[in-house]
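Progress note, sequence design subtask.
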């Protein structure tokens, strides 16, 4: 975003975590930024959260409020579009939306949290649930990533204006990948929710019949617990815990990977999976959240029920051993991104949302 975009009156103010931060929301915003979304929609992005020290983090939050007030105080009332997850992220963004509405702005609540249903029901008391209901109902639109999440929101907050707009992902140029054999790539926040420990057990099973199998774990999370599990399972020579990796390193890892695996228990619509598909990488994932709306088992990916390491190992072995299956899954995965989740497709849906709300 150039300086002119930052200083002129914006028709849309979008707010969320820094595009340089970790996590799915940051990746989504970075894709929009790269595609020229802000220039196309006379939009401005305000960072509400950054991965910095406590004092600086507070400064970012206060600065976001000041910028929002300035942006909403002009003659033109912009639409205010926030990206939010569960817990603290929800409360921060709900207050910003309430502030924007006080200035007469239209508001868009964009939900990314994979466990928002648990947060909104069993994880919140009566007062908190009332505030969640209030935020959803008062928002001019609530954007969710999949039909399954839209179904939950319709039940939880009847009357909310729910729109389904999936995450967008950049479609890289075809590079003619030359993957290493039996190289499994995991990208995400390593831990129980993402099924990391099930994947480690699956690798243990695979190592008996595919001794060259190798798992690369890229991401943050409970890496110490993952390292302990690797040691306990005796699979140290089969697992590399790479930790958080940047865009260039991620692209290099994708080039070398045989397949991508994310055996999660809860998801929205994971960006890591979409990025792997965009690169033509076969994916082995679980049918949770919005994933079944993107993946058809045996066509553009493989679906395995969560919490079943033996079944997971069998699916991984099938993809590793079957060259034709692997090629077909990768080709179909990329085609899915191109036709349904490509940046142009999603930007068009966001543009239509803004026009429907009178923001453009």
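Output:
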């Amino acid at each position: 975003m150039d300086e002119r975009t930052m200083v002129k009156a914006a028709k849309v103010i979008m707010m969320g975590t820094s595009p340089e931060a970790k996590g799915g929301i940051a990746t989504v915003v970075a894709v929009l930024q790269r595609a020229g979304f802000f220039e196309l929609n006379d939009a401005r992005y305000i960072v509400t959260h950054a991965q910095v020290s406590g004092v600086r983090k507070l400064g970012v939050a206060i600065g976001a409020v000041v910028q929002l007030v300035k942006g909403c105080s002009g003659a033109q009332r912009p639409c205010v579009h926030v990206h939010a997850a569960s817990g603290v992220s929800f409360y921060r963004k709900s207050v910003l939306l309430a502030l924007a509405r006080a200035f007469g702005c239209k508001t868009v609540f964009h939900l990314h949290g994979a466990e928002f249903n648990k947060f909104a029901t069993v994880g919140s008391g009566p007062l908190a649930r009332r505030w969640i209901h209030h935020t959803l109902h008062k928002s001019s639109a609530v954007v969710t990533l999949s039909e399954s999440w839209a179904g939950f929101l319709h039940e939880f907050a009847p009357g909310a204006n729910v729109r389904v707009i999936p995450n967008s992902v950049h479609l890289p140029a075809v590079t003619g990948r030359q993957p290493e054999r039996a190289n499994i790539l995991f990208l995400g926040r390593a831990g129980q929710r993402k099924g990391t420990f099930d994947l480690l057990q699956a690798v243990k099973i695979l190592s008996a019949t595919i001794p060259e199998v190798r798992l690369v774990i890229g991401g943050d999370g409970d890496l110490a617990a993952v390292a302990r599990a690797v040691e306990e399972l005796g699979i140290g020579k089969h697992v590399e815990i790479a930790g958080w990796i940047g865009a260039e390193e991620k692209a290099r890892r994708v080039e070398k990977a045989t397949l991508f695996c994310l055996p999660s228990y809860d998801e929205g619509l994971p960006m890591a999976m979409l990025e792997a598909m965009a690169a033509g990488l076969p994916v082995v994932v679980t049918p949770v959240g919005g994933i079944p709306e993107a993946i058809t088992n045996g066509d553009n990916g493989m679906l395995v029920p969560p919490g079943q390491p033996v079944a997971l190992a069998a699916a991984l072995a099938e993809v590793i051993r079957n060259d034709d299956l692997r090629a077909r899954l990768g080709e179909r995965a990329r085609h899915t991104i191109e036709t349904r989740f490509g940046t142009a497709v999603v930007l068009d849906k966001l543009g239509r949302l803004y026009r429907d709300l009178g923001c453009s």
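The domain at 183-341 is CATH 3.40.50.2000 (Rossmann fold). Work on this subtask will continue into the next period as scheduled.
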